[in-house]
Amino acid sequence: NEANRWKLSFEHSYWPSEFSYGNVDIEAVSNRSYYKDVDVFDIESKTSTYTKSDATYSKLWKHAIFNLNMVYLDRLDGSTDYVFQKVPNLNFYLMDMPLFKTPLTFNFDSDVTYFYRKKGYKGIRLNAQPGLRYSVLLGRVKNTTTVNYLFSYYDRSLNSTSTSTRGIFKFENRSFSNFYYYFNRDLALSINPEIAFKFTENEDQESLPKYDVSDRIEKQKSLIPAVTSYIYFKSKQVARFSLEGNYNFYNREDPWETWKLDID
After folding, report:
1. Distance CA 98, CA 28 (A)
2. Taking the C-alpha atoms of 56, 60, 66 and 68 in order, what is their torsion angle to the nearest 10 degrees?
3. Which pLDDT value is given to residue 158?
4. Full-prediction pTM beyond 0.90?
């Protein structure tokens, strides 16, 4: 019956402890016309193209984080059968751990995702990314070098006998410094210059499934200069200014990409 339209919303949050957190947010709509026919909704709701229901849970330890996330998108134009759902996505991240008595630290990021689509396409993606970080203080300049290796495994055996893998090397070197200038007892200025070099190995990924944007990692070789300034008045931050550029070595015609300016 076109006259009987409905919308269901449910949200629940819970804190088992100060190191655990969970949230459930469910939203369902009978059809697209519901938003158009009801007068209480704003423009953003009236132009909605989908509803999203999700459930999350996070657990924290001293040096690790575990996240569980399930998301279901319902397209209001009836195309949900062609949308990949991530049910669930599990993520475990080990924060920087000192390696013995060296200046090196070890970190590990990983996630496993089950993808589902009503039109019969299902699959699993597993990412594992170990990394090493080295930090050194050179006078007023802090230099950090990070090396990561991303390994991905795709299992499409739920639909066929096909599996795929990839391995991508990542490198980043970043130098940062800060300078403070005091004009009087109440007014101060902080200037923080920074320069970074980022490299991501190029690898042919055409054989990988196209589940979401994280399936494609673009090659990168960039030099990124930036500067951020803060203005303080009576020890409180009252303004922020940042400028960041990007020199793309792979773009020979116009290597300097758009500069980003941000003022608060």
Report:
1. 47
2. -10
3. 62
4. no
